[in-house]
Design goal:
By secondary structure, this protein is of the alpha/beta class. Helix content is 54%, strand content 14%. Helix 2 packs parallel to helix 3, helix 4 packs across helix 6 and helix 8 crosses helix 9.
């Protein structure tokens, strides 16, 4: 059985490398190559009945990037499989792709054998993520879960907000009608509780949680 493949990458050398690998495999037919996702979206609109089994795409590309392309393809035709081959390993990007049902993700420096295994696995109806990508995804999920389990008291939020607004220990003590020593204790406890290193870390956390405006 021959599978119809599309390859999208704006680096010609990488695109040519992928082509030379896949052209040695008799069961893969390369329908189209392109340097950006917009080309693929248009091609699909013009040829809605053409059977495409797999789209292999990079992430960073002009006009329509790989994340947007995956989302559009999955919304329009969920039967098309998508494999991302990219140097990016940003947890947010990986999260977004998985959320929008990407079928696989391997880094650009993967061995030829792993790339072929990924394609074979995906066309066989399963997902394929390289070990590095899995590790980043799971680590991100774990740290998000940990973040969500940290609960600050009302008083701790008051203290961290004033710290982030650059008030001195004495000024915070005066505003909250507490002793300077108590505020210092709060500060030390917050640094330990949030696993940050210093006041800058507390400020970053306050910004992230929306206690102060950026």
């Amino acid at each position: 059985m021959k599978y119809n493949l599309i390859i999208v990458d704006d680096h010609k050398m990488f695109l040519d490398g992928l082509l030379s690998i896949l052209n040695t495999e008799s069961n893969y037919h390369i329908v189209l190559t392109a340097k950006d996702g917009e080309h693929i979206v248009k091609y699909q609109e013009i040829n809605p009945n053409e059977k495409i089994d797999l789209v292999i795409t990079d992430i960073s590309m002009p006009k329509v990037d790989g994340i947007t392309l995956n989302k559009i393809l999955k919304e329009k035709n969920p039967s098309i499989k998508t494999l991302v081959v990219s140097m990016h390993n940003d947890p947010q990007m990986i999260d977004n792709l998985i959320e929008h049902d990407v079928d696989g993700y391997v880094p650009k420096n993967a061995e030829k054998q792993e790339l072929l295994l990924a394609i074979e696995t995906i066309l066989g109806g399963k997902k394929y993520f390289s070990r590095d990508i899995k590790d980043i995804y799971l680590e991100n999920k774990f740290s998000k879960k940990k973040e969500n389990t940290i609960k600050l008291t009302k008083r701790e939020i008051d203290v961290i907000t004033l710290i982030a607004q650059e008030f001195t220990t004495q000024e915070i003590a005066d505003q909250l009608f507490l002793s300077k020593h108590t505020i210092e204790s709060y500060r030390k406890n917050l640094i330990a509780k949030l696993s940050v290193r210093n006041l800058a870390g507390l400020t970053k956390y306050a910004l992230k949680m929306g206690y102060i405006d950026a």
